[in-house]
Specification:
Strand order of the largest sheet: 1-2-3
Strand content: 35-45%
Shape: flat
Order of helices and strands: EEE
Number of helices: 0
Structural class: mainly beta
Radius of gyration: 11 Å
Helix content: under 10%
Largest sheet: 3 strands, antiparallel
Amino acid sequence: MQPGGYRRSSKDILTVPEDEILSAEVLYTIVGCDVRYEKSK
């Protein structure tokens, strides 16, 4: 993740139990004002 970027995951990886972090899915990533990745629905 670059400085100034934002990533949204399916789980809050800062608060879930450690064993659940690896199962979190990235939903989208924004860098600057550009959506660089968005999970297809």
